[in-house]
Every structure is written in C-alpha cells, then in structure tokens.
Amino acid sequence: MTLQPLALQPTTRHAMVIRRYYSAPATEKARKASGPLKGVTILDLSRVLAAPFCTQILADYGADIIKVEAVGKGDDTRHWLLPGEQAKWKKDVGPMSTYFSSINRNKRSLTLDLKHPKGKEILMRLARGADVLVENFKPGTMDRLGLGYDKLKEQNPGLIYASVSGYGTTGPYARRGGYDPIAGAEAGLLHLTGERNGPPVRPGLGMVDMATGLYIHGAILAALHARARDGIGQRVDASLFETQISLLTSVGLSWLNLGAEAERWGCQHPSIAPYDAFQTKDLYLVCGATNDAQFADLCKLIGLDSLAIDERFSTNPKRVENRDELGPLFNAVFKTKTTAEWIEVFTGSGLPFAPINNMERTFAHPQTQARDMVAEMPLGSAVSGKFRLIGPAVKFSETAPSIRSEPPRLGQHTSDVLAELGMDAGEVEALKQEGVV
C-alpha cells in the first residue's frame, strides 16, 4: 500500500492558518469559544514531562495536538503509577496514570511506528499539514529516522520544528540524555537547594523540566509570530541544561561579576533578612521584611519593637550580616502562637506572609476556587467515571483557554487522524495488522 501525498500545498495551507490565527472570527461568541490558538495544528512526538507540559499549555489555548506515541507502549508516564493507583483505572483502557493525565489533556493520541517505512510516510504526511512539530528525542535520533528538521522543512517550509533535549543540539554534551535531576545537578540548582550547611536537596517537583516546557512554549509562539511576518518556519532548540543556567539569574551574575559562590539557604533569602519559614505552635509561617520600613512594621506587629532601633538590625545589609543573631529572636516569638493565630495577626498588615500548605489546604484555598484552578470532567478511563484536573494558570479576557477533552487512551484517535489523511477503514486496519499503527 502506497500512501498518497496531501493535495494541499504547504504554503497555501499555512497562509490559511495564519489568516485564521490572526483574523477575528465572525462572531464574538465564536471568538471567545475558539481559544487563541484555534486553527493551529501541532504534532507532539514528545514524552515524559518537559515537552508534554509545553504542548498541554498550547492545547489549553486551543491548538489541535496530535500526540504521536509508540505502538503498544505509548508515553513512558502512562506506566508511572503510585502504589494502589491501578485500582482507580478501568482494566480495559490500557496504560493510564495520574502523572500522564496531568500533562496530556486536550490531545489526540495516534500510535505510530516511526521505524517502519509506512510509519515514516504517515508522519511525513502529517508534518506537511502541521504548523508545529515538537520532539524530545536525543539529538540526532530524528535525523537517523529520516525525519529531521532539514528533511521535513523540504516538505513544509512553514513548519516550526521544536526540539527539547538534555543539553541542546550542539556542544560536547549534545548526545547525552536529558533528565531533570541531572540538569539540576550539573547546572547549579541542587548546589543551591537545601538547608544551610546541609546536603543538597532536589526540589519536590520537576522544576527544570517544567521551566523548559514554559520556555519552549513561548519560543513556539514567537516562531509562529515570526512566520506570520516573514512567511517561513524555523527550528527552535531548548535544553534542560540551558534552562537551568538561565534560571540562575542573580545568583549566576553574582558569581560571574563578583566571584561570589552561591550557598544553600533553606527557606531563607541570601540577601534579605528576616525572610524565612518560622515554626509556629503547630505548622510553619513564611514571612519577612523586604525593606527597613517593613522591618519596623514587622517588629511592632510581633512585639519586638526594640529590634527596629537596634544598631545590629537597623538596615537590611546589617540584618543580613547578623542574621544568625536575629533569627533565634524571631523563632522564639513565632512558637508562641498557632499558624492560624499568626495569620489573624498578619491579616491587613500589608506585610508578606503565608502558611506552608499541604496539598489538602492548597486545593481547599479560597483563591484556588475563585480562580478556577480545579476542574472536574467526565473520564471514561476512571473507575469513578470522573476526574479532577488542575486548571489553566493564565486567564484571557477574550479567548479563554479551556479543558475540552480528557487525557486520551493510547491510540484512541488513530483511526480519526488517519481518516483525516484520506484513509478508509480498510487501509487503517491493514496498517494495524502490519504493526505500523
């Protein structure tokens, strides 16, 4: 069976997409329901966290995400279940997990063997009609498959080809695999994270992965804008290592310009004091003073008025220098009340403060509810028939992001996507029998 090329030429198709992307829909209702990226098609060949997090954001904004997964296996995170989690999923839905579900809603799943000649041909046809392709294989993998950027841009000059890797596509470490804690270690994050004078500690979330996803999502939008202006696509190349280097910000510049080595500070701030998590009678409260006026207000609020006129603490540089003397004085006071009592004291003060909340208190927070940060939707894969998801973080006044579809079952949309390429049911079945899809 020979797959026929798409009849629509890439340049024509992209001109249509650009007009849809930048032209107002016919009605206000249509404009508000479409999402800002309605009409943009993205091939998502990525797995695990960084790039899928990126494409979920773009999906929430209205893009059509076709998630291309390995036949029979799918994204690795489909198999990453917590103890006891398996019982939450129906037995006949294939591999599924809350981890996978957290970063793969609003996507369509197509299974495809990219090593098979027919699988490559299908991917090529899809790329001809796509606006963006996102992949996070080791650099060189897509080229070896005959599906690298240079090959695909011959077929589709308007394609935005986004790559995410551990170290980028050039340099002596380009061929190494990419993992969040490895990038965090090698690019300085773990050196910064942990208690003072204690061992390094990994953050509780994959912060380097997710920050890379945020970087590449912004880069994709910038490349779409450049294509609308200039008429051509391009490759955008992000890495976990470079992301973490860029996140060093002031700490990095202190080393580059002052030779000041970074230290671990726990919950304290390296250049502001006091700023810490203070233990209360029952939990912890984070608070501090970012300037001298706030320090005076804070001292008065908690009954340590005399500290505001103490020469050791009269300015922020002096407080930083004498933090080891200042900290115990604050610690002793905060242990005299519960966190709830301190919140009542601080409320209305204008000072920065917050309790350290666990997951229960975080998701019960009134601001979480007010800003629609939790959404519940029907989910056929779940035994309960429903599922709760974290809502989009950014709000739009005119083209609101939305949660339109559940995290897909493995290969759930294979037949639909192939039908959009003009294949009938017999052709699709033949490809399944060959293991291509």
TrEMBL record:
Presence of keyword Cell division: no
Alphabetical keyword list: Transferase
A Gene Ontology term for the protein's cellular component: mitochondrion
Origin superkingdom: Eukaryota
GO MF annotations in UniProt: succinate-hydroxymethylglutarate CoA-transferase activity
Family according to the record: Belongs to the CoA-transferase III family.
Name the UniProt record assigns to this protein: Succinate--hydroxymethylglutarate CoA-transferase
Organism, as annotated: Pseudallescheria apiosperma (Scedosporium apiospermum)
